[in-house]
Amino acid sequence: MILYSSMNCIILESTKQMIMTYLRNTLSFLFIILLITGCGQTTTEQQQEQVVTDDIPEEVKIEKALYDDVMDVHDEMMPKMENMMSMKGKLKEKVDLLKEEATQTELVNELEMMIQSLETADEAMMNWMRQFDPETDSLSHEEIVEYYTTQKAKMDSVKVIMVEAIESAAAKLEEL
To answer: Rounded to an integer, what distance in angstroms lies between the CA atom of residue 103 and that of residue 144?
Structure first.
């Protein structure tokens, strides 16, 4: 009986080792397959992307690049709109306080001019957004290039107006 029990333990231990070796080998094999497959997919995706961009006519690439230039400036400035309105509110509070005290009329005038600058900057962005029309299907390549070039110049002007108003207001608010 003791011999039989020892044999069972040896057989169980041996079977356990075989199963562990099998699992280790299987997991290693699956990992290698997954690694190879994953790397292969990235290359395939890159190749497909390259094929897609190679199929695009050069004129369309130019038009897209110009559109992206316009939208890059727009996207850079849009988050600043909320900051402008916040500064405008703080300046208005300060103006109201100073008007109640009936003092420092020169400072009140300066702050009101800054508020006006922030409003002008806000309106410049709103006007640009209202007039911007990215639908260019009916235009020739030359017209599209001219349109986006003009829009980029307009957006750059809006950026200058906004940056000047923001910097001026921020400096004054820090000073107060």
So the answer is: 55
Q: How far apart are alpha carbons 63 and 75 in whole angstroms?
A: 18
Neighbouring residues of 90: CB distance < 8 A, sequence distance ≥ 6: 173
Give dist(CA 31, CA 50) in Å, integer.
29
Residues 118, 88: Cα–Cα separation, whole Å: 7
Asked whether the beta carbons of 107 and 95 are under 8 A apart, the reply is no
pLDDT of 17 strictly over 50: yes
Report the alpha-carbon distance of residue 62 to residue 144 in Å, rounded: 10
Q: What's the CA gap between 62 and 68, in Å, rounded?
A: 10
The answer to whether 63 and 145 are in contact (CB under 8 A) is: yes
d(CA 155, CA 148) in angstroms, rounded, equals 10
The pLDDT of residue 78: 96
Domain locations in the chain as residue ranges:
1-55, 57-175
Burial 65-76 (b: 16+ CB within 10 A, else e): ebbebbbebbee
Residue 136 has φ and ψ, to the nearest 5°, of -120, 20
Is 0.70 surpassed by the pTM of this model?
no
Q: DSSP 3-state assignment of 137?
A: coil
Greater model confidence, 3 or 129: 129
